[in-house]
Structures are given as structure tokens and as C-alpha cells.
Amino acid sequence: MNLLFLFVTALCAMDTVVTDTVAKDTTDSVGFQFTTIDSVAITPVKDQHRSGTCWAFSAIGFLESEVLRMQGREVDLSEMFVVNRTMMDRAEYVVRMYGDVAFAGGGSAYDVLYCLRNYGMVPQSVMPGIQYGTTEADTLPVHNELDAVAEGYVKALCHNSKIKRLTPVWKKGLQAIYDTYLGACPESFTYEGKSYTPQSYAQSLGLNPDDYVSITSYTHHPFYTRFALEVPDNWRMDQMYNVPLEDLMAIIDNAIAKGYTMAWGADVSEVGFSRKGIGVMPDADKGADLTGSDMAKWLGLDSKAKTDELTKKPLPEMEITQELRQRAFDNWENTDDHGMQIFGTAHDQNGKLYYMVKNSWGTQRSKYKGIWYISRAFMEYKTNDILVHKDAIPRVIRKKLGL
């Protein structure tokens, strides 16, 4: 996980479902105005606070929506149960590799699916995690400290020349660190008057891990085959189905139309991704031409100021191709920055299509209360992968994938 990921994911959260009404930018008469086309039910937005755990929040939100879709009941699942289990697994993997792979607080949507299959799940109220501070404003950066302590522990094991042989208790020491910061994973618990283990509670959710598949789209592997996407946070080597870009977009469109959401792995480092709730791909190299600003002034703006200029109103966007995607992936322009949840579509005042995305950066720091409106061009360019129910994939594509 690179520094950009650490910077981006340290901010996440969200709160409630968007209604199918017009969302207007009241501060700018020529700003974005959105009307919902399709909206699949989602659970309330959460806040990952200052942590790199967007992968857990986005995929947990996805599973919560799946329970809502299949059973019609709202559940609130524990992200920190998944984080605790996942980071212990990742530490063991790193130690087995003698520290020659990254150990960091990131992960992927597949980590949540792996946890569901192998460890179960617990409700949020059973394992809420630990927050130090009485309000959001004074909440201490628990995960920053935790990541530093855990990383130092693992590095000491792997790179200290004095350690020639590991003791059998090193995992107990690291487990104690994660339990102290996140809370201990329960072996059993009582919830709503019933006794559960994490495995039996997971079974009550009605989720079959085998029903979910990861999809990506790159040309350095053959289409309609599976491969492990080469990004640091795919450390479990999740085998993703590789499809052409047009099929990837067809899957996303079909899923929403059929009432499914998706966990979305994306790169949000572009200047077209605004903290206010917009993700677009205007040609930043021609920013002054697009915004009507003076070129000298445009070149003198910092990245945040350019983002503000490019996301004030709808602008012409880049045309995204398979080749452009691949080039951006190969030269590190597209990285595994952030995880969110795709759940709907909308159009702006000009009829242009956008995707509605649930973020985990809270409801107070974005214009649309934790919802982001992502243009089709941004979705085409910046999608690394999606996790989706296989029934949401169009039949003709499923046949090509052998599903």
C-alpha cells in the first residue's frame, strides 16, 4: 500500500440512503443537478475516521445490502471484526515471506468475503471497535497508532538480524496489540436474545461466499480468464475474472438495473475526484480551456484548487479506452486507492449518466451526505475491480466466464 492510499483512505464515511429526488447544488446556479434513475437499497453511511480500512467498510456495506435484498432486513455488521482477523492473517503471510512483501493497513473486498467464509461475522454492537474521544472532532487517530505499532512489531520479527528462529508465541503478542486497539473477536455472543458463534451468525445472514465474484478489466492477461490483480492490497491473490471494458460496464449497469449493488475498488487520486461528492474525468491538461480561466492562472493552481475548478459544473470529459486504462495501470497512474459501494444511477441537468456511490467518509464532509456522483468516464477509467453477485452478471457474459 503506497503513501497515496494512506492519504486517501484516512478520511472515509457515510450516513443514509439517497432518495430518488433531485439533488441540487444550491451554492452555484450552474453547478451539478442530479435526478436519480435507479437506486438500490443500502444501509446507513458509516465513518471509517482516520483509518485505512475503506476496504472493510465498502465490502461490509455491500454484504449488508445483500442481506437487505434477500431477506428484507437491515443488519449492521462489524468492520473491526474483519479488520482484526484480516490483519493477523496478513501478518502471518508477511512473516512467512520474511518481510519481503508489504505489511500495511490496507486490504481488498475479497478479504471481507474470505473472513465471512472462514471466520464468520458479528454484529457491530458486539464488536464496535474502540474510539478514543467523545466526539468526531476529538477522536484520536487510533488506526494511525495501531498501524505504526503493528508494522514495527512485524518488521522487528522479519528484519532483526539477531532473530534466527521465531518463538511459537509471536502471534499471541501481535494478537494482543490488535485486541487492545480494536477489541477482541468473540468466540460466542448473545444478540437479540439468541446465542451465536461468529460462524452461526454468518449462516443466519443467508450469504453464500461462492455466489460472489471479483471482476476486472486489463489487457496484460487474456480476457475471459482469471488472474490475481497485481496490486499490493490483493495480498491474498484473489483470482479475478478479466473482461473487456465494455463487458465490465455492462455488468455494472445490469447489476443496478436488476437490484444489486457492488463493492468497488477504485483510484480516487485524480483532480476530478472532489471531496464534495463528484467524480469526473475532464481533461485536466486543458483545464483553463474547460473552465474559462486564464492559462497562466490555471497552471499556478495547486491540486485542490484545480479539483475545485473542474468539479464546479458539468464539463466535457475524456474519452476512455481499454488502451488508456492499461497504460494508466502500467505506469502507476491507476492505483488501488479506495473502496466504496456502487448502488445507483442518476443523470445531471444535461442528461449525462452518473453512478451513485456510497462512501465511508461520513455525512458531514460531502455535499450529498456521503453519496458521490461518479461519471461514466470516471467509472470506466478508474475502476480497478468490483465484487458482485454472479447472478447480476448478464447471461451472455456469464456464459463466456463459465459461471
The backbone outline, from C-alpha atoms, is: globular
The percent of residues in helical segments reads 25-40%
- What would you call the structural class? alpha+beta
Low-confidence stretches: 1-29
How many β-strand runs?
A: 13
Topology order in helix (H) and strand (E) letters: HEEHHHHHEEHEEEHEEHHHHEEEHEH
Report how far apart the termini are: 31 Å
The overall pLDDT, averaged over residues, is 89
Radius of gyration (Å): 21 Å
What's the helix count? 14
- Portion in strands: 15-25%
**Largest sheet properties:** 11 strands, mixed
Task: Tell me what you see in this structure.
The protein has 403 residues and is of the alpha+beta class. The protein is 36% helix and 16% strand. It has helices at 3-9, 54-71, 79-96, 109-118, 142-159, 170-182, 198-204, 245-257, 287-291, 295-299, 303-310, 322-330, 376-382, 395-401; strands at residues 22-24, 33-39, 189-191, 194-196, 212-216, 226-228, 239-242, 262-266, 278-279, 338-347, 353-358, 371-375, 383-389. Strands 1, 2, 5, 6, 7, 8, 9, 10, 11, 12 and 13 form an 11-stranded mixed β-sheet that branches. Helix 2 crosses helix 4 (109-118), helix 3 packs across helix 4 and helix 3 (79-96) runs antiparallel to helix 6 (170-182). It is globular.
Keywords, please?
403 residues, alpha+beta, 11-stranded mixed sheet, two-stranded antiparallel ribbon, 36% helix, disordered N terminus
List the helices and strands and how they pair.
Elements: H1 3-9, E1 22-24, E2 33-39, H2 54-71, H3 79-96, H4 109-118, H5 142-159, H6 170-182, E3 189-191, E4 194-196, H7 198-204, E5 212-216, E6 226-228, E7 239-242, H8 245-257, E8 262-266, E9 278-279, H9 287-291, H10 295-299, H11 303-310, H12 322-330, E10 338-347, E11 353-358, E12 371-375, H13 376-382, E13 383-389, H14 395-401
